[in-house]
Amino acid sequence: MITGMMRQNPEAFLDYTFRSLQPTENLKAQVGKVLVYPSDTAIPDARESDKLRSQLVHCLESLPSLPQIPSPQGEEVDVFKLRKYPVLRWYVIRIVLHADSADPWIQVAPEG
């Protein structure tokens, strides 16, 4: 359930929206975790939660094959090129893929 705090805090909203996502079989071998950076200008809207979740999954599945993520800093996805994912672009300013596994699979970076 979206709380009042989440309506005012993009980080909490994204954490709630993405916490249950698990990697698809295609992504499981390639991406250990996904770190998303929230936009500090987005105003969370609970009605967009499902669409946001869906757009992130489709975005990640449409990435070219990543046999390995070479850097410990991860591999950045250019969010500004994601024109067909407008809700994702509104809420997320940066996506970084990492090889090392983590739980939850999608993690939200702190604002700032």
Topology readout:
Elements: H1 4-8, H2 10-18, H3 25-28, E1 33-38, H4 49-61, E2 75-77, H5 86-91, E3 92-98, E4 106-108
Parallel strand pairs: 1-4
Antiparallel strand pairs: 1-3, 2-3
Helix pairs in contact: 2-4
What does this 3D model show about the protein?
The protein has 112 residues and is of the alpha+beta class. Helices cover 33% and strands 17% of the residues. The chain contains five helices and four strands, in the order H-H-H-E-H-E-H-E-E. The chain has a four-stranded mixed beta sheet with strand order 2-3-1-4. Helix 2 crosses helix 4 (49-61). The longest helix has 13 residues, at 49-61. The protein is globular, with a radius of gyration of 13 Å. The two termini are 25 Å apart. The model has no long low-confidence stretch (mean pLDDT 86).
Offer a concise description of the structure:
This protein has 112 residues and is α+β, with helices and mostly antiparallel strands. It has five helices and four strands, in the order αααβαβαββ. 33% of the residues lie in helices and 17% in strands.
**How many DSSP-defined strands?**
4
Mean of the pLDDT scores?
86
Largest sheet entry? 4 strands, mixed
What separation lies between the terminal Cα atoms? 25 Å
Question: How much helical structure, as a percent, in the residues?
Answer: 25-40%
Tell me what portion of residues adopts beta-strand conformation.
15-25%
What gross morphology would you assign?
A: globular
Radius of gyration: 13 Å
Number of helices: 5
Which regions are unreliable across 5 or more consecutive residues at pLDDT < 50? none
> What would you call the structural class?
alpha+beta
